[in-house]
C-alpha cells in the first residue's frame, strides 16, 4: 500500500501534456509546443567551462551540505548588489533546484495541519508540495483587474490561527505579473502583524521587463526575517537539467533547511554547483541577452494575441508566459469536467498546438502558453490558436 498522502496528490498536468506531445511526435506530427516552461537557450559557454574545469580537477567528492562555499559567497554578492539585501554564509542553502529548496523549506517550517495561503492562479506544484509536507493549502481568489496579484484585503479573508505561511510568486508563473514596492510593503505589514512567513519564489526575477524588480526581503529587517527567498538557475541561465536552486532565510530556518537536506540528499551535485558559480560570476551579459530576446518574443505574442477575437490575457511584465482568458468561448465547446482541459485537448488534436489548461493553476477559464521557444514555433502556435478559436465561433 502506498502512503495516504498520495491519495490527495494531483498528477502534474504539464507532465501529462508532455507525454501527449511525445506520442504525437512519435507518429511524425509537427507539434507547436507552447506548454513547456523551459528556456530555448543552452547553458552559457563560460558557465559550462567552469563545470568542465571542476570535473577535470576532480571536484566530485562530498562537499558542504549547504552548498559549495564559493557558490554561496557568490550568491551573497549577487543578493547584495542586485537585490539590496545582506545575508551571511549560514543563511544560504543551495539545493537541487528551486523545487527542492521550496520542499526543504516546507518540511522545516510546517507542522501537520498548518495552513499555507496560496494565491490563485498558482504554480501547479505549490498545493501538492504543501500537502506532501503535511500542510493545508488555502486557495485565495485574486482579482483580474489587479493582474491576479494578491492584496491585503484578499489575505485578511483567509487568516486563521493556523495560518503559517503565504506563497508569493514574483514575477508570477503563470501570469507574468510583478508586484510593486507598495504592494509588497502592504503584504509584509499584514504578515508581520499576524506572524505569517512569506515564501518568496523569485525564480523568474531576472526575466523582468518593466522597471526595477523588488525583492521582498529587501524591504526591511523585519521583512527579511519572515521571508524565505527561493531562486535558482533554471530560468535565468537555462540550467534546467543541472538542478541548482537556493534559499535565503534567517539563520534558524536556514539551519533547519540544511538539516533536512543533509538527511535527504546530502547536497546538490558539485559539478552542477560549479556551473551555477560560473553563471553568476561570468555570464551576466549572456543572461541580459536572453532577457532581451524574451522581451521581443513577449511583444510578438502580445501583438498576435491582441488580434484574436473573443480572448483576453494578463499583460506579462516578467517571466515568459501568457495567461489567456478563454471564458467567452465556454458556450462554444462541449466539455464534461474541465473546460480548459477540453480546450487544450481539442487545440492539440485539431491544430497541433500544445498549451497548459488553466485548471492546472486553479483557473479553469484560462490557458497558459510559453514564449520561451523559437520564434517560428511561437508564430505557428499562436496562429494555430487563432484558427482553433475561429473554428468555434
Automatic annotation (TrEMBL):
Q: Which keywords does UniProt give here?
A: Aminotransferase, Pyridoxal phosphate, Transferase
Against InterPro entries, the record matches this protein to: Aminotransferase_I/II_large (IPR004839), AspAT/PAT-like (IPR050596), NHTrfase_class1_PyrdxlP-BS (IPR004838), PyrdxlP-dep_Trfase (IPR015424), PyrdxlP-dep_Trfase_major (IPR015421), PyrdxlP-dep_Trfase_small (IPR015422)
Pfam families tied to this protein: Aminotran_1_2
* Coiled-coil regions, chain positions: none
Which GO-annotated molecular functions does the record name?
transaminase activity
Required cofactor(s): pyridoxal 5'-phosphate
Against CDD domains, the record matches this protein to:
AAT_like
**Residue ranges of the Aminotransferase class I/classII large domain?**
31-378
Write the Enzyme Commission number(s) for this entry.
2.6.1.-
**Which principal EC class is assigned to this enzyme?**
transferase
Family assignment from sequence similarity:
Belongs to the class-I pyridoxal-phosphate-dependent aminotransferase family.
What is the recorded name of this protein? Aminotransferase
Q: What is the lineage of its organism?
A: Bacteria, Bacillati, Bacillota, Clostridia, Peptostreptococcales
Amino acid at each position: 500500500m502506498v502512503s495516504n498522502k498520495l491519495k490527495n496528490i494531483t498528477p502534474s498536468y504539464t507532465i501529462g501534456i508532455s507525454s501527449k506531445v511525445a506520442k504525437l511526435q512519435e507518429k511524425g506530427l509537427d507539434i507547436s509546443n507552447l506548454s513547456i516552461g523551459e528556456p530555448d537557450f543552452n547553458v552559457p559557454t563560460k558557465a559550462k567551462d567552469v563545470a568542465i574545469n571542476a570535473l577535470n580537477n576532480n571536484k566530485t567528492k562530498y562537499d558542504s551540505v549547504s552548498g559549495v562555499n564559493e557558490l554561496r559567497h557568490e550568491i551573497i554578492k549577487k543578493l547584495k548588489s542586485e537585490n539590496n539585501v545582506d545575508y551571511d554564509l549560514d543563511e544560504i542553502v543551495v539545493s537541487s533546484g528551486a523545487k527542492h529548496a521550496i520542499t526543504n523549506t516546507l518540511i522545516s517550517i510546517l507542522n501537520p495541519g498548518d495552513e499555507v495561503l496560496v494565491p490563485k492562479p498558482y504554480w501547479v506544484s505549490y498545493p501538492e508540495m504543501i500537502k506532501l509536507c503535511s500542510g493545508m493549502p488555502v486557495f485565495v481568489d485574486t482579482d483580474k483587474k489587479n493582474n491576479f496579484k494578491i492584496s491585503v484585503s484578499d489575505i485578511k479573508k483567509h487568516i486563521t490561527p493556523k495560518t503559517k505561511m503565504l506563497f508569493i510568486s514574483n514575477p508570477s508563473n503563470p501570469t507574468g505579473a510583478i508586484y510593486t514596492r507598495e504592494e509588497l510593503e502592504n503584504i509584509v505589514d499584514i504578515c508581520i502583524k499576524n506572524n505569517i512567513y512569506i515564501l518568496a519564489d523569485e525564480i523568474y526575477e531576472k526575466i523582468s521587463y518593466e522597471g526595477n524588480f523588488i525583492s521582498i526581503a529587501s524591504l526591511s529587517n523585519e521583512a527579511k526575517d519572515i521571508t524565505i527567498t527561493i531562486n535558482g538557475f533554471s530560468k535565468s541561465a537555462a540550467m534546467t537539467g543541472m538542478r541548482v536552486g537556493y534559499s535565503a532565510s534567517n539563520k534558524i530556518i536556514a539551519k533547519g533547511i540544511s538539516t533536512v537536506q543533509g538527511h535527504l540528499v546530502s547536497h546538490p551535485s558539485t559539478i552542477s554547483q560549479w556551473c551555477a558559480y560560473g553563471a553568476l560570476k561570468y555570464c551576466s551579459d549572456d543572461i541580459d541577452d536572453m532577457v532581451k530576446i524574451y522581451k521581443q518574443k513577449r511583444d510578438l505574442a502580445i501583438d498576435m494575441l491582441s488580434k484574436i477575437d473573443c480572448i483576453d490575457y494578463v499583460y506579462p511584465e516578467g517571466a515568459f508566459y501568457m495567461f489567456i482568458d478563454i471564458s467567452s468561448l465556454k458556450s462554444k465547446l462541449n466539455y464534461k469536467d474541465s473546460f480548459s482541459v477540453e480546450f487544450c485537448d481539442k487545440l492539440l488534436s485539431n491544430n497541433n498546438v500544445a498549451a497548459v489548461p488553466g485548471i492546472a493553476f486553479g483557473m479553469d477559464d484560462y490557458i497558459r502558453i510559453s514564449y520561451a521557444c523559437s520564434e517560428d514555433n511561437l508564430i505557428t502556435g499562436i496562429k494555430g490558436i487563432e484558427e482553433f478559436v475561429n473554428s468555434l465561433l
